[in-house]
Amino acid sequence: MPTSDTNNDKSNHTGVAAVDRAFLIVNAVASSEVPISLADLSRETGLYKSTLLRLIASLEKTSLVIRRHDGRYLLGPYAHKLGRAYQTTFQLTDTLQPLLEEAVAMGSESSSFHVYNDTDTRMCLLRIDSNHSTLDSINVGDLLPLVHGAAGRLIRRFQGGNTAPSLENVFELSMGERDPDCAAVACAVFGVNNEFIGAISLSGPKERFTPEAIASLETMVRQISQRASEQLGARWPTA
After folding, report:
1. 234 burial class (0-12, 13-18, 19+ CB within 10 angstroms)?
2. I need a labelling partner for 222 at 20 to 30 A (CA). Which of 10, 179, 183, 233 fits?
3. Residue from 239, 85, 234, 52 nearest 161 by CA
4. Can you tell me whether residue 210 is helix, strand or coil?
């Protein structure tokens, strides 16, 4: 017997809720620096253990999440496959890694590439530490707030494609926003059809960000972001 429209609507909402919860689990597992226990997953997600076990069973079938012999969970091989597919699609590592390394070799602050993660956070996808004796503390995979920092402002500005890039709005400077002792310059990176991809950041201790250093770092980050964007198929703004 066909189900009613009302029943179909309830089923759709239930399905959407299950997907939302599944992504909540994957995000908690991915954010943990060590394999995570079921109890910690429950605390991080706010979900009952029975709900977690039911959803994790589906995630395990696709190898997105796997369970170790000690009962703790970590990302599975399919998560790695997705990451490789993402990087391959946008040629991010091949394009950006040499440019980030080049900036550091030229004496810049630490270079990194940040992308949108969710409505509250951005992720550090690539990172090259500078050759200075003191550094800011950022690692690949770290989740940082969207509301603080030069890269965060650029991601909020361009994510969704509603803002056209210009020479004025692709650059940002932050002084002690995310960390009172750190500063950064950042510039947006675009791809095919000028789709926003992320932001390159040069960051380090705020004490080194003198007016002269900021001017030099701005020139550098604009140049490598333009080169990255053009290699990824974008048209860099001229005005």
Report:
1. buried
2. 179
3. 234
4. coil
| Residue appearing with tokens 């004025």 | 168
Helix (H, G, I), strand (E, B) or coil at 149: coil
Instruction: Round to whole Å and give the CA distance between 63 and 79.
Output: 8
In whole angstroms, give the CA distance from residue 175 to residue 10. 49
In the structure encoding, which two tokens stand for residue 35, read together?
A: 């394999």
Pick from 191, 189, 193, 226: which is nearest to 114 by CA? 189
Residues with Cβ within 8 Å of 36's Cβ and at least 6 positions away in sequence, in order, are 28, 29, 44, 72, 73, 74
In DSSP terms, 36 is beta-bridged to: 73
Least confident of 64-73, 136-145, 148-157: 136-145
User: pLDDT by residue (tens digit) across 167-178?
Assistant: 999 999 999 998
In single-letter form, the type of residue at position 96 comes to L
Round to whole Å and give the CA distance between 1 and 110.
Answer: 63
Terminal alpha carbon distance of the chain? 63
Distance CA 97, CA 110 (A): 12
